[in-house]
Amino acid sequence: MWSDGRQQGVAAATRATPAKGQAMSAHSRAFLQVERLAKAYQADKPVFANVDFGIDRGEFVCIIGHSGCGKTTILNVLAGLDTASAGHAFMDGREIAGPSLERGVVFQGHALMPWLTVRQNIAFAVKSRWPDWKKPEVEAQVEKYVAMVGLSPAIDKKPSQLSGGMKQRVGIARAFAIQPKMLLLDEPFGALDALTRGTIQDELMGIVRETQQTVFMITHDVDEAILLADRILLMSNGAEVDGAYRPGGLAEVVDNPLLRERTRTQLHHLDGYYALRNHIVDFLVSRATAH
Length: 291
Ligand SMILES: Nc1ncnc2c1ncn2[C@@H]1O[C@H](COP(=O)(O)OP(=O)(O)OP(=O)(O)O)[C@@H](O)[C@H]1O
Fold this sequence. Notes:
Order of helices and strands: EHEEEHEEEHHHEHEHEEEEH
Bound molecules: adenosine-5'-triphosphate
Shape: globular
CATH superfamily: P-loop containing nucleotide triphosphate hydrolases
């Protein structure tokens, strides 16, 4: 069920990597491919190094690790909002070299424009994605995705008139409405109460299954990862070991063996749930620093 990320790193390191900005064979890599990625704010102390992983089209991958291990940094590199100190990230055969409407991003803060209504916020994104679309097409797209997150009655409200959960739903609708090739979620439910969080997790899972969306998501919540993810990446933090600094990195890749048609309420009753949960918790408690 689980495999050592460092072993995968060795395998990946033996494959040829094209020069920056160059196209690569779409057949040789996963849909999203990260190769030997590293980030250092201080040259002698990289936050992480040699991170290798791939995500297949339609796959849902969660990344878990303690605060500061570099999860958001990796997501920002995938979003094209940050650059790595070393390594490469490719999507659909091309190196990621900046932000693109091919990738939808949802952060914990909803980042809606407060002076615009739900409809206008999402229409803004849709018009950026398809500048040639006429008003009726834009409206239809907006209404479809607002309905998908159950917010049709609030479509003409402004963010200040919405609850935290509703605002987060708008962020999700906006990300889906541009039909990105990849959805990047940075703890999108972190600020929500447990009940709202559960409901939106269910909604997200339904939409992702229906649209076969490819997703990379950061979470601190082990159950959330087990519910949503096909695979879970476990990241370790950098640490001093025997007087020498070791950067953090991808410690392990865990395949989720549970039935894909799972729901939040039956999760705890599924065969393999406790073994999986214990394995991840054990990693977080005792193995999540570089060694
Ligand atoms: N602009 C920056 N300058 C210097 N250090 C930074 C900068 N941005 C991030 N860091 C450091 O890089 C490390 C990784 O940050 P990052 O936000 O990616 O971690 P994370 O795993 O997402 O943490 P959390 O779970 O708390 O969000 C942290 O130690 C952070 O302090």
